[in-house]
TrEMBL record:
NCBIfam families: PRK06299.1-2 (NF004952), PRK06299.1-5 (NF004955), rpsA (TIGR00717). Binds mRNA; thus facilitating recognition of the initiation point. It is needed to translate mRNA with a short Shine-Dalgarno (SD) purine-rich sequence. This is 30S ribosomal protein S1. GO terms for biological process: translation. SMART domains: S1. GO terms for molecular function: mRNA binding; structural constituent of ribosome. The keyword Repeat applies. Belongs to the bacterial ribosomal protein bS1 family. Pfam families: S1 (PF00575).
Amino acid sequence: MAQNASMEEFEALLNESFEMDTPEEGSVVKGKVIAVEAGQAIIDVGYKMEGRVDLKEFANPGEAPEITVGDEVEVYLRAAENARGEAVISREMARREEAWDRLEKAYADDARVEGAIFGRVKGGFTVDLGGAVAFLPGSQVDVRPVRDAGPLMGLKQPFQILKMDRRRGNIVVSRRAILEESRAEQRAEVISNLEEGQAVDGVVKNITEYGAFVDLGGVDGLLHVTDMAWRRVNHPSEILSIGETVKVQVIKINKETHRISLGMKQLQEDPWDLVAAKYPLSSVHQGRVTNITDYGAFVELEPGVEGLVHVSEMSWTKKNVHPGKIVSTSQEVEVMVLEIDSAKRRVSLGLKQTQRNPWEVFAETHPEGTVVEGEVKNITEFGLFVGLDGDIDGMVHLSDLSWDERGEDAIQNYRKGDMVQAVVSEVDTDKERISLSIKNVGGDKFAEAVGGVKRGSIITVEVTAIEDGGIEVEYEGMKSFIRRSDLSRDRSEQRPERFSVGDKVDVRVTNVDSKTRRLGLSIKAREIAEEKEAVEQYGSSDSGASLGDILGAALKGDD
């Protein structure tokens, strides 16, 4: 009977063990630490199963493991039994499953989660979220780029989950979103205490090409480079340095974007209020060249007051030249005030007006008829340009090159760089033009030679050459030609060969052409005029007197 009872008890216990639900592999189960040895914790997960877990799986990144005998922990059952008959369990995987459940709920509720940055990877950092590893992009670490993330390593802090995918095991978090949220609250509080026009103290946090960011105690304002000083500021670093405390005025507050515009010059007196009184029109002042452009140069009259010298007002003589070839940056120059526009805060200045107009000076020192000497600077199709005193040029037109040659032919005798003499013909100071004449140097020989000669005059010329068509004669150094038909009234005497070189001949002037510089001469016209005069004095053709008698009497009367 006793033996049958023990068999029944054994059978009952066996059946009971079969009826018990054994844990499913791949699930999280509770266990108890029964021993800690050789860097491992031996955990009893029940159901007659024990497993081993490395102690490091119980430690948070950068911390020592805290585990003692008797502690109850949750582990992940990977396999019920291995080759040694032990359960294959993992605390890390259990923590991960637990963390994913917690993180999914936080993600759904848009709640913050706590974690610690423990490693650096390409493009960012790794974050331990209490068992689950997340990726923190570099752009999400802070509101501004972080050069050294060392102080943030291992520090427990809140994060915002941006994206997660449990199937792929991906979690992306942001620290920046937390900072921006808290910063926005802080900004709202600070901005609520600020008013436009208020003067406040701030600390320069950052300097850029276009201005500086000033911390007003939790909120940044932009101090634009144009609002730093009334004078021109090329770069903010000229007057500011990072960490410097400055007094600024709140110019504008955008309540929606929380952007604040600041100014420094607004706390100083505007120099333009006194410009019109200090710089009257046509007054001359000393200034400093601050900037040079293609269209002119800016000259600072005093800090905050600049004027523009337009390229057309820089030099009397240098036209179409870049301003940089006339003045240089930081050069001290004398300028004249030409115009003031206080509304547009503009002053027009002149550089050349501080010097006398060189054309006026030339007109005073070189009246018309003055002989000048200069270098041929340029040769054009219509004449020569000659360099004169005062760095100005005069022009010799083709028609003023020579008395004897066509202008087109005469200009071939000149080369660039030749030194020439010319007579000042005209000076037009308004048009800045000087007309010169080379042919008038030494006077007008033709005008001098024929000064007392007019049409109808009888003059004596000398034969210089005999040609088939007539004879060449000379009068006071001026050449003329008498055609065959004008050699005599008598056709039989119209023979050039009856004259010899050197003969003196009386001729009548039929034309004085100053343009061609030629005298029209005729022996025939002289003979006809003499006959007419004799007839008028001694008789007519009707009186019966012969021409020989009349001329004989006339000649006798002359004797």
